[in-house]
Write a structure and sequence with these properties.
Elements (H helix, E strand, L loop, with lengths): L2 H10 L4 E9 L10 E4 L5 E3 L4 H17 L3 E6 L16 E9 L4 E5 L3 H12 L4 E5 L15 E4 L2 H4 L9 E5 L4 H11 L6 E4 L3 H13 L9 E2 L11 H17 L15
Parallel strand pairs: 6-7, 6-9, 7-8, 9-10, 10-11
Antiparallel strand pairs: 1-2, 1-5, 2-3, 4-5
């Protein structure tokens, strides 16, 4: 099996995995320089960087890095003596392994191609998150109105959900042109694995839509729902509202607290 071809295939299909590469090896190591091994989130592997204890330790380290979304270079001591990182292997020698992690990409799905939808699409380019804009009005769902690289879909809101690659790394923003469509989008969004579901509207409008969904047996206590949407930063124009929505998404994405950096107490060593 060609590991590099497999890696390219996994990246193209946005699979989550780690790639361990033997970047340094002295004469005692069991595999040649450049040997590679793919480690999946469930611990399964493809390829090899040496087998035995070394491989087991690398798998464990790769899984830790996958959870943290980080890359790191490790040095392993393949001896039975005490050392910095001894593995108790009879072959001896030292090995350095570069472990790189590959994750699914964040994606933004905007339901509604009006003024706010357009501004959200523009901001998605700035924060480098792929964006899909969906609208059931043909005169609005036109690529000419949006920046290059934005995927624009003209479709019925209900039907569109089955056409979109929404997964656990997705952020859904509902800014359609009517309460009925907002309700449809919220109901369908809750069926997905999206980690964020934001819906625009006043408190009264949001309450009305939620109450209507409750009558249909929909659980509206889902913590992924953010409605009214956005952070309270004095947002009035479509551009300002879009900024407040993106700020909320980035806060959730990064785990930030939204405080002024000026007011954050910096710990000194």
């Amino acid at each position: 099996m060609n590991i590099l071809l497999k890696v390219a295939e996994l990246i193209k299909s946005e699979k989550t995995f780690a790639l361990a590469t033997l970047v340094y090896a002295d004469s005692g190591t069991p595999r040649k320089l450049g040997s590679r091994m793919i480690v999946y989130p469930d611990g399964k592997i493809e390829g090899s960087i040496g087998g035995g204890t070394l491989e087991l330790v690398v798998i464990k380290d790769a899984l830790k890095l996958l959870a943290a979304g980080e890359n790191k270079r490790f040095q392993y001591d393949l001896t039975e003596k005490e050392g910095e990182n001894p593995l108790g292997m009879a072959c001896g020698g030292k090995a350095e392994i570069l472990i790189e992690t590959f994750q699914k990409k964040d994606k933004l799905f905007v339901f509604g191609a009006g003024h706010i939808g357009k501004k959200l699409a523009e901001l998605s380019r700035i924060i480098e998150i792929p964006c899909w804009v969906i609208d059931n009005r043909e005169e609005y769902a036109r690529e000419v109105f949006f920046p290059e690289g934005i995927t624009v879909l003209h479709d019925d809101f209900l039907h569109s959900f089955s056409q979109l690659p929404i997964d656990e790394k997705s952020y859904i923003v509902i800014v359609t042109h009517g309460h009925t469509f907002d309700k449809v989008c919220l109901r369908e969004a809750l069926k997905t694995k999206a980690q964020y579901i934001g819906m625009i509207g006043s408190k009264n409008k949001v309450r009305g839509i939620k109450n209507s969904l409750v009558k249909e047996g929909v659980d509206i206590n889902d913590p992924r729902i953010y409605s009214p949407i956005g952070l309270q930063i004095g947002n009035y124009t479509p551009g300002e509202i879009a900024v407040s929505i993106v700020a909320e998404i980035l806060k959730i994405k990064s785990g930030g607290n939204g405080k002024h950096l000026r007011d954050v107490v910096q710990k000194t060593p």
